[in-house]
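Summary for the steering committee. One of the milestones for this cycle was to obtain a three-dimensional model of the protein with nickel (II) ion bound, which we needed before selecting residues for the alanine scan. The sequence and ligand used are listed below.
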Amino acid sequence: MVKLVILTAERCQIVNIITHFGCLTFCLENFEVLSLTDMIYVSRQEHFNAAHKLYNPNWSEEKNNEVFGPCANKNFHGHNFNLIVTVCGEPDPETGFVVDLKKLSDLMKDEVTEVLDHKNLNVDVPFMQGKMASTENLAIEIWKLLENRLSDITSFGKLYSVKLYETPRNFVEYFGPETAGP
Ligand code: NI
């Protein structure tokens, strides 16, 4: 992945290239900046509780226990999940909002937290059937649920990331599908 980011107005003419290997900064002569945007990132946090277990049915019980440890407990275990959704865009000139956070909160509740709260991810949640009930896979499914509906509440913001905390110290963050390369 290579991103070209124009950092400054035309007087400075500095260009940043961000690669997997780090950030390269250099100057260009006679470089003309066409436009700068006021992109801003707006986030909302919601909460739900859910149970799951990590268990691969194609493996023996011994291998499941070896790989997943107590997470493979056959009678499941629970987590207090925190979900942080970030929307990016330029503010609507009429409201100053990228997205109305009350509407984003309602969307997260309708599409995600009220669907998942007090559920067993392995058993009760149709879109997790046939998948490993990991936090990674759950975050990807949450992205799909929200992306489909975000245009209902904002014409200025796009879904930027879904961050899902399984515990205060274990969390995943998903930025949407990327093109497989090279
Ligand atoms: Ni767990």
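Key point for the committee: Residues 6 and 15 are 5 Å apart (CA to CA).
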